């Protein structure tokens, strides 16, 4: 019992250090973002051998090929998304951490894998989509599955550089504007298909 209490205290200290030394120093100061990230235990979303590194300022590679992005990316993603109680949110992720952060901030949240999202297998009508990683491009199936006006915040991988990006579906297409450069794990499901070159 004593060991469990000490471990819990250690993780609480790590969450506070994450906020003070990673988020705030990166300009992430929105109250709702800091409150959620101070509450949700990242260590519960990684394998046992990675729990001690859950609050490190880097992405963590998880069993099965998934990755948990660095805390700064999640802070930037939520800040840019500005979720509202009336939002129906869709989280594209292989881990449950981002959905746990978002859940109390929106009317409803569902999560699907990057593979399903890239293939356009989206149920319901989300008003906000958060992609928990960097995509090389918006697949036609993904764009077609979204309603007009849907907001999307994601990572974007271009020529080896990853950036936070945001956009909205308008006129039948989804355009993304690259914002801040930051390290983000790439989602292979959204890679461009290799083609012939001459």
Characterize the structure shown.
- This protein has 198 residues and is α/β, with parallel strands linked by helices.
- Helices cover 29% and strands 25% of the residues.
- The strands form 2 sheets. The protein has a 6-stranded mixed beta sheet with strand order 4-3-5-6-7-8. A two-stranded antiparallel sheet has the order 1-2.
- Helix 1 packs antiparallel against helix 2.
- The protein is globular and about 50 Å long.
- The termini are far apart.
- The relative contact order is 0.12.
- The model has no long low-confidence stretch (mean pLDDT 92).
Q: What strand line-up does the widest sheet have?
A: 4-3-5-6-7-8
- Number of DSSP-assigned strands: 8
- Reading the helices and strands in chain order gives HHEEHEHEHEHEEE
What is the overall silhouette?
globular
- Main beta-sheet strand count, sense and barrel state: 6 strands, mixed
Mean pLDDT: 92
What Rg is obtained from the alpha carbons, in whole angstroms?
17 Å
Helix/strand class: alpha/beta
The share of residues in extended strands comes to 15-25%
* DSSP helical segment count: 6
Runs in which pLDDT lies below 50 for 5 or more consecutive residues are none
| Gap from first CA to last CA | 66 Å
How is the quaternary structure best described? single chain
Helicity, in percent? Answer: 25-40%
